[in-house]
Amino acid sequence: MIVPGRHRCVLFDVDGTIAETEGHSHLPAFNRALEEAGLPWRWSRDDYRRLLKTSGGLERLLRFAQESGSDPDALRESLAGVHKAKNRHFAEILASGAVPARSGFRDLVLALAGQGIAWGVVTTTSRSNWDALWTHSLIRLGLPAPVVIVCGEDVAAKKPDPEAYEQALARLDLAPRYCCAIEDSRNGLVAARLAGLEVAIVKSEFFADERFDEAAVVVDELDQLLPLVVATTKGERASV
Ligand code: XBP
Ligand code: MG
C-alpha cells in the first residue's frame, strides 16, 4: 500500500493513530471540564466509545446533550466553553508527558523519510491539541516536520466527510494516487477513501471492532507496517 517511487506523502490521522490520546487524555479532560462547569454528566469508557462515533469534541458534547433530553441549541454557548476548557485540560495532561507516540511511529516516519516520502497530518481535532502533542510528545523524536497539517478548524465538515483529506491534497498539489493515509477509525477510513486515497488501518483502543472492509491493510501496531516499507528499499515488491 505504501509505494516508494510513486507515493510522495503518507498522511497520518492523529487521535488513536499517532498516539492513544482518546482514553489517556481527551476522555479525562472532558470529565474534568464537565465537573468544573458544574454539570452532572460524567462519561465512562463505554459512553465514550459510543460518543466517539461523532467526530469533534463540541459536536460530541452537543450530541450527548440531545441524548440526555436537553436542547443542544440552548446549550451551545455554554458547551463551547466546556469544550474550550476540555482542550485546556488536554494540554495539561499532555504537558505531564503521559501520552507518548504509538509504538513504531518514529521508525515508520524515519523509514519513509529514508525513501524520500514525506509525512503529513490530517485530523479533525483542534489545532491546539495537535500543537500540544507535537510539543510535549513528538518533537523529541527528532523527526522531519510534517509537510502539511490540516486540523478541525480548517474544515467546514469533519470526518467522515473527505474535506480534510481533500484540503491536504490541494495544499500538497498532489493527486490522491501519490499519497496514502493511515487511520484508526471507520470515520477516518471513509473520509480518506472518499478523497480517493488508499488507507492502512492501525487498530486503536476504542475503534478496534469497527468495520474496515475498504482498507488496503489492517494492522494492530504501526510497527507492522515498518518491515514492509523497509523491504521495498531492498528492491523487493514495493507494496504494503
Ligand atoms: C478526532 C476527533 C476529535 C477528538 C477531540 O477525530 O474526533 O474530536 O476526539 O478533539 P479524528 P476536539 O481522529 O478522526 O481526526 O475536541 O478538538 O474536537
Ligand atoms: Mg483517529
Strand residue content = 5-15%
Shape: globular
**Small-molecule binders:** xylulose-1,5-bisphosphate, magnesium ion
What are the segments in which pLDDT stays under 50 over at least 5 consecutive residues? 235-240
Residue share in helix: 40-55%
Number of DSSP strand runs:
6
- Secondary-structure content class: alpha/beta
Q: How confident overall, as mean pLDDT?
A: 94
Q: Widest sheet: strand order? A: 3-2-1-4-5-6
First and last CA, distance: 4 Å
In DSSP terms (H or I, runs of 4 or more residues), the helix count works out at 9
Spell the H/E element sequence. EHHHHHEHEHEHEEH
Radius of gyration over C-alpha positions, nearest whole angstrom: 18 Å
Q: Can you summarize the main beta sheet?
A: 6 strands, parallel
